[in-house]
Amino acid sequence: MPPASRVLALIGKPGCHLCDDARRVVAAVVAGLPEGAPAVTVEEHDILRDPVLHEKYVEEIPVVLIDGRTHAFWRVDPARLRTALLEDR
């Protein structure tokens, strides 16, 4: 059974066109989840404001984490993201 809620973190920085693309994909996928799907909390983190995230992810942004686990970096596939948000942990 899928969890009742998910936390999706989008890690990027201002002026990053891939981050803008990822943000659009995340928004569309979350908005299109079926009724009864887990609630998804979307958090955005700016690597320019967080030295730890900068050190860890500077070469990979945008990065999408689901429940703290890396799901994707650079490009976000909508179908793969949707599946991941709906599946069991």
Strand content: 25-35%
Q: Within the CATH hierarchy, at the fold level, what is the topology?
A: Glutaredoxin
Task: Report the CATH architecture.
Answer: 3-Layer(aba) Sandwich
Class per helix and strand makeup? alpha+beta
CATH level-4 homologous superfamily:
Glutaredoxin
Rg value? 13 Å
| Major β-sheet profile | 4 strands, mixed
Number of strands: 4
The level-1 CATH class: Alpha Beta
Figure out the total of helices.
3
Strand order across the largest sheet: 2-1-3-4
The end-to-end span amounts to: 9 Å
Uncertain segments of ≥5 residues (pLDDT<50)? Answer: none
Let me know the average pLDDT: 96
Total discrete domains:
1
Q: Can you give the helix content as a percent range?
A: 25-40%
The shape, in one word, is: globular
Describe the structure.
By secondary structure, the protein is an alpha+beta fold. The chain has a single domain, classed as Glutaredoxin (3-Layer(aba) Sandwich). Helices cover 35% and strands 28% of the residues. It has a 4-stranded mixed β-sheet with strand order 2-1-3-4, sandwiched between helices. Helix 1 crosses helix 3. The longest helix has 15 residues. The mean pLDDT is 96. It comes from Leifsonia xyli subsp. cynodontis DSM 46306.
Keywords:
Thioredoxin family protein; Glutaredoxin-like; 89 residues; Glutaredoxin; Thioredoxin-like_sf; globular; alpha+beta; Glutaredoxin-like_YDR286C; 28% strand
Give a short summary of the structure.
The protein has 89 residues and is α+β, with helices and mostly antiparallel strands. The protein is 35% helix and 28% strand.
